[in-house]
Amino acid sequence: MTVSESISAVETSVDREFRRVFILSSGRSGSTLLASFLADLGAEFGMRTPDQWDPGTGDLEHPDLHRMAAWMGYAYDLSPDRPGIGPRRYLWDFYRSMGKSRLRRLLRAARYIKGEGADFAVQPAFKIGYFPTIVASYRRFEAFATSSGLMRGHSSFETLVKYYNRVNRNALLFLRMFGGCVVGYEAVSDTADTSWANPLATATGLPADQLIAARNRRLRGPVRRGVGAYAAAGSSPLGQLPAATHPVQDGTQNMVTSACRARRAHPESAPSAAALHPGRRSGRPRRQTGRSSWSSRRLRLACRTRWRQP
């Protein structure tokens, strides 16, 4: 009997009250769409279900998850594993203790947990006494990095690779430990594709036909268009999840090649400056205001005054 089979056997003998579903995603992978139609069928995220699916933001992410992930992230940045005896160990234990206190409150408030940093919550939740089920929301790295780069102005290639590999490797490990399924971005966002429905139904206990109908309603309903809608235009074909276990290699060349091909094939799909920055008027240079313009005027005045002195 494997580890996941033994855990499943134990779970069937306990109250379903302690079962929690974790949607693990590196971001920009369709996890908000997935969570939205799961919530339509009664999944409890501890938050109000949005009326419209916004591809540019991450809805249904509980505030306690953000607080837990921040404390757990401090401990992870200090050391991925528990340090030895010394001040670093006491500080690491303090960060983890603060994160677990937020996690306990989160687990009492929600049965479905989705958001960045959710992979930090899986093992502590099991140690507390809950039984996790994993839903890995997956997208190819090229499309993920392009979409994340459009949404965030501070992410470098190295940080994206590090975060992407951490989340997806943890998702593979937790799938092996606790069981669950994988939902790909291209599959769940295509109304003609239903290959994801039966595995997700097995993992969540929701009927497959209702999952498909709820997904289609979300895709065909009104959508709040943001920058993420433009970023989704350059998606890549879905690969196999085990590819995420290997470090990303030649990612820069693949991203540049995919972007150039997309621009040549669909030049109209590239977002314009007016689309990415709706408040900025196109055709005119933006007027420089504030401290920098005042400083430049003072510099010119000082130079002019010095030049006129005998």
Structure description:
With 310 residues, this protein is α/β, with parallel strands linked by helices. The protein folds into two domains: 1-61 and 110-244, no CATH class; 63-107. The protein has 14 helices and four strands. It has helices spanning 3-12, 31-40, 63-78, 87-109, 122-128, 141-151, 157-178, 185-188, 197-204, 208-220, 227-231, 251-265, 273-276, 291-308; strands at 19-25, 112-114, 131-138, 180-184. A four-stranded parallel beta sheet has the order 2-1-3-4, sandwiched between helices. Helix 1 (3-12) packs across helix 7 (157-178). The protein is globular, with a radius of gyration of 24 Å. The protein starts with a helix and ends with a helix.
